[in-house]
Write a structure and sequence with these properties.
- The complex is a heterodimer of chains A (110) and B (244).
- Chain A contains 5 helices and no strands.
- Chain A is mostly helical and 110 residues long.
- Chain A starts with a helix and ends in a 5-residue tail after the last helix.
- Chain B has 244 residues and is of the alpha+beta class.
- Chain B has a single domain, classed as 2-Layer Sandwich (Alpha-Beta Plaits), CATH 3.30.70.
- In chain B, the strands form 4 sheets. Chain B has a 4-stranded mixed beta sheet with strand order 8-1-10-9. Chain B has a two-stranded antiparallel sheet with strand order 2-3.
- In chain B, helix 2 crosses helix 6.
- Classes of the chains: A mainly alpha (110), B alpha+beta (244).
- At the A-B interface, helix 2 of A face loops of B.
């Protein structure tokens, strides 16, 4: 009985993993993101995919409250490589159904 | 050899003290970026009222352009980071004076003391700011400020092509005020109002570091008769006026 439960659990985990993998492939275009310049981001791409929200929040705190301004890590600098906000931010956020409000106030420079 | 508790504690303390003292100037933790606001500076402004004319609005205009400060067209709701005020002595012996009034970036800011979310705070270099990410719009700070330097954003502010991307617009329902153009100061520039006053206006405004005895503002504050508004409140404001 215990074994059968374990097998079912492993199957479910594998299945959900493959669904997630399919999901991230579905939202990522085959030829890469449109309007992308440059070779690499300020952090490894995989790391940024998972952690950009915490990273941006941490940078925000130290910039606003401590006055630490690192030009390359400023939100304003995203657009030097990711030229289209619709393709870079909005598409993924719409897909996963999150609504970050960074650009309600911050201006994504053209 | 066995060590009793006192010896072990003593050795631990000595090692810790040694780590701090052995290498002066060398930090075990990497120093943060050099642009960090530092207590070595104390930003302040000096306004020479004799050079400020009633007709000139260079400072207020420059502030609106630089910081994306909107005008809603409703006097009760309009946002002012810096405004021109006309003052007249009671007997009317002196001609009326016109002077800009802005956030005084007090050393003991009452707005910071009353803020329930610690959205209002004072940086190490003395600039008082509102962290709009934390502000809940309760407006305690607006009541606490004796200079009426703060405004609540009553309406949604739209971004257009003329907006300055270096300064985000503020969302509806947060409190905002003069930042001494902190983004420019951190970049080594002067606040927009001071630059405009010196270029287009009468050169009445001066900005600088009070902690640097060689700076022009420190010398003028030291040698000339300057005043602050409502000095009796003991808040140590850092917008000084000359000829008031």
């Amino acid at each position: 009985m215990l074994w059968s439960r374990l097998v079912v659990m492993i199957l479910v985990l594998l299945l959900s993993g493959s669904i997630q993998a399919q999901g991230s492939d579905a939202v990522r275009p085959a030829g890469g993101w449109p309007g992308l310049k440059g070779d690499k981001c300020i952090q490894p791409t995989d790391w940024m995919r998972k952690n950009h929200m915490e990273f941006l929040k941490q940078r925000r705190e130290v910039t606003v409250r401590e006055g630490v301004r690192i030009r390359d890590e400023s939100l304003l600098q995203c657009q030097t490589c990711h030229t289209s906000r619709q393709a870079f931010c909005d598409r993924c956020h719409q897909y996963v159904g999150v609504h970050p409000d960074c650009f309600d106030c911050h201006i994504y420079p053209k | 050899m066995t060590m009793d508790r006192r010896t072990v504690l003593g050795l631990g303390g000595a090692v810790a003290a040694g780590a701090i003292l052995l290498a002066p100037g060398v930090r075990l933790i990497a120093a943060p970026n050099k642009t960090e606001a530092s207590g070595a500076q104390r930003w302040a402004m000096l306004i020479d009222v004799n050079h400020c004319t009633a007709a000139c609005t260079a400072c207020t205009d420059a502030c609106r352009t630089e910081n994306n400060v909107p005008l809603f067209g409703d006097p009760k709701r309009d946002i002012h980071w810096i405004r021109k005020v006309e003052v007249q002595d009671e007997e009317g012996r002196r001609p009326p004076l016109s002077l800009p009034v802005l956030c005084n970036h007090c050393e003991h800011p009452p707005c910071v003391h009353v803020c329930p979310t610690e959205a209002s705070f004072i940086r190490k270099d003395g600039i008082v700011l509102v962290d709009k990410h934390r502000c809940i719009g309760c407006r305690y700070c607006m009541i606490a400020c004796p200079y009426k330097a703060r405004s609540l954003v009553y309406f949604q502010v739209d971004v257009d092509k003329a907006s300055n991307p270096r300064v985000p617009v503020r969302g509806k329902g947060v409190v905002e005020k003069c930042t001494f153009c902190v983004h420019r100061v951190d970049d080594g520039q002067q606040p927009a109002c001071v630059e405009a006053c010196q270029a287009a206006g009468e050169g009445a405004m001066l900005f600088g570091d009070l902690n640097d005895p060689q700076s022009e503002i420190a010398q003028r504050v030291r040698t000339l008769k300057t005043e602050t508004i409502r000095a009796d409140l003991g808040l140590k404001p850092h917008v000084h006026y000359q000829g008031l």
